[in-house]
Amino acid sequence: MESALSHFSASPWLIIPILAIVFVAAIVQVELGMGFGLTAAPLLALIDPVLVPASALFLGLATASWGAWKERDAICWREVRTGMIGRLAGVVVATLILTNLADKTSFTLVFGLMIGLAVLLSIAGWKLAFTRGSLAGMAMLSGVMGTITSVGGPPLAIVYQHRPAKEARPTLAAFFAIGCAISLCGLYLTSWAGLADFGLALVMTPAMLAGLAVAHRLRGRFDARYRPALLAISGLAALILIARGLA
C-alpha cells in the first residue's frame, strides 16, 4: 500500500481530524475500559484505508500495555495463555484473508464488514458462559477481527461481560497488548505493516498521550451513557466503508 507519510505531505490538513480521532479514542479506552480500536479504526479508515490496521494496532499496543502494567498484579495469566492460543489461530486466518485480497477496494469492503460485525457484537447482548473453550473461540474471532481492523474487543467483551471489572480489565489489557504484537508480526510477515505504519503511529502518539491525560482528569465523567453514540458513529462508518467497497 502507498506510503501514508508521502500522501499526507500533499494534504497536511488531514492530520487535524486524525489527531482528534485518536485523542477521543484514547479517552474512550480509559473511561470505558476498552474501545480504542472501535472508536478510531472506522473513522481513520474513512479518511484513508492506509491508516489501518497497522498504525492503529501500534497505538492499541501502547494503550493496552500501559493498562496492563498499571494493574499487573491483578492479571490472570492462565486466562491470557488460553486466549493467546485462539488469538494466534485468528491471526493466521486473518493474514490468509489479507494476502488474498485483490486491491484496496476489496480491503475496504472486508474492513467495513468486520467493523459492522464488531458493532453488532457490541449491541447484541449475547450471553456466553465463561469456559476455556468459549474464551479460546472468542479469542480466535478477536484475532481475525483485530488483525484486519485493529478492533478485537467485542468478541471478548461477550465472554467477560459478567466477570468483575477488577479481574477482567487487567487481564484483557494484557491479552490485547500481547495480541496486538502478534497481529503486527503477522501483518509484517505478509507485507501489510512496515516502517511507514510505525512512523504514522509516532505522529499520532502525542494525541493519544493527551487523551490519556485528559481521561485521567475526567475521573469517570465520560461513562457508558456515551457508548450508544459511539456505536452509532462506528456503525455509520462501517456502512459507508461497505458502500465504498461495493462501488
Short description:
The chain has 247 residues and is mainly α. It contains eleven helices and no strands. The model has no long low-confidence stretch (mean pLDDT 90).
Any overview of this molecule?
The structure is a single chain. This protein is 78% helix and 0% strand. By secondary structure, it is mainly alpha-helical. It has one domain. α6 packs antiparallel against α11. The model has no long low-confidence stretch (mean pLDDT 90).
What distinguishing features does this structure have?
mainly alpha; single chain; 247 residues
Layout of helices and strands, plus pairs?
Blueprint: H1 4-10, H2 15-32, H3 36-47, H4 54-70, H5 77-99, H6 104-124, H7 132-149, H8 153-160, H9 165-189, H10 195-218, H11 227-246
Helix pairs in contact: 2-3, 2-10, 3-4, 3-6, 3-11, 4-9, 4-10, 5-7, 5-9, 6-8, 6-11, 7-8
Question: Which series of helices and strands comes N to C?
Answer: HHHHHHHHHHH
Total count of strands? 0
Average pLDDT level: 90
Number of helices: 11
Q: How would you sum up the major sheet?
A: none
